[in-house]
Amino acid sequence: MTYQSPKGVFDIIPERNFEKVNFQCSELWAFVEKICKELALAYNFKEIRTPIFEHTEVFTRSSGETSDIVSKEMYTFTDKGDRQLTLRPEGTASIARAIVENQLQRKHSVQKLFYLGPFFRYDRPQAGRYRQFHQFGIEVIGIKDPELDAEVISLLMNIIKRLGIKDAKLQLNSIGDTESRESYKKALIDYLTPLSDQLSKESKERLLKNPLRILDSKDKQDRKLLENAPLISEYLNENSKQHLGIVCKNLELLGIPYEINPHLVRGLDYYNQTVFEVVTGNLGAQNTIGAGGRYDGLLAKLGGQDSPSFGFAIGIERVILTLIEQGVFEKTVQGPSLFFIPLDEKSKLKCMELLQEVRLENIQSEIFHKNFKIQKGLQMAFDENASFAVIIGEEELAHNIVKLKDLNKKTEQTIGLNDFSSVAKNLFKQ
Length: 430
Ligand code: HAM
Fold this sequence. Notes:
Helix content is 37%, strand content 20%. The chain is an alpha+beta fold. The chain has an eight-stranded mixed sheet with strand order 1-5-6-11-10-9-7-8.
């Protein structure tokens, strides 16, 4: 009996094909994660890790009962203690809960946090959309200045640039402060109420409960009706216009191109003011590789102090698909630096000793265990994409030497056994 992983999830596995890297290649994942973390640290963010599941209410209260995530996509279950729990569909709500619970703001009112890990949404799987997916996320708590919005967006854009992604477009909008949204909500209700018979069943319900959610509808007829709907930009008050203006000015200052997309509203209820998405042309329908915005009211909603907040999350799967699609990776997988090939039992003991020495110097090294046949060993060294083969046999031991074969240049040199470690260290100095 063999088993397959459930629909919409996948394994991340080592890649053996060095010419063509595929989506599940763990080295590629490590590369993307490293760049995200490196830049977050440069921007002075600290890591936070929260549990994979939370009390369901953490998400229903944050994202909104009528959001797609809460109403359709959550993996919710009752545990043996009769608790209602949910596998986290996103990070922001969990981080907000953790900040409040751990009283992180007691000492430092400003919190700059990053996270990386799996998230879960029950949706129809397709390329770029999975039931378990991974996000790298950033949350800043405690700063209301619009300059911060631009600063955090610049982190996202710099990650994308450093990864080598081409043609990523930043789309920006403001959904205003509460006052602006209230007057817009009224205008939207006035516009949609006479058309309500033509709306989908879901949007009809949303018209009563949460009219702004209708803007997210994927129903064709709804989308048509929305074409002539009023735009939030027409209802922004002075405060909201000014906020957006400063964000734009700072993005320009930092040399970050953007376009204002007046239709951008985002699918979660906690946002206000700045919202944004980064899209690429390579992913078809699932073309948003990262997204976020301001969420000034969320912490207070979860029992914390009133804290202006801003953040984003990158979908790692979509980043990786884009990198592959754009051919950024041709040969990323790192083979061992040294590949030891012993030619008899006694030489193998020597190889084991040397292997230990170089590994403790962080030189990636491997040994051929299968047999003592040099050709087989060399073949495996090539297959593993090794840089050098280290060959030791009876003759080498007798003369106190090793043979070092450069597998790329196809050259060979002889080194004294006692000098081996220092030669290796020099070769792979970082
Ligand atoms: P989101 O737009 O729901 O925002 O997700 C962010 C990113 O996660 C998306 O742009 C996409 O790249 C990726 N993503 C979402 N769902 C899937 C899926 N089913 N399969 C693959 N990738 C997916 C949030 O989650 C907010 N918490 C972002 C945020 C942080 N806002 C403020 N701070």
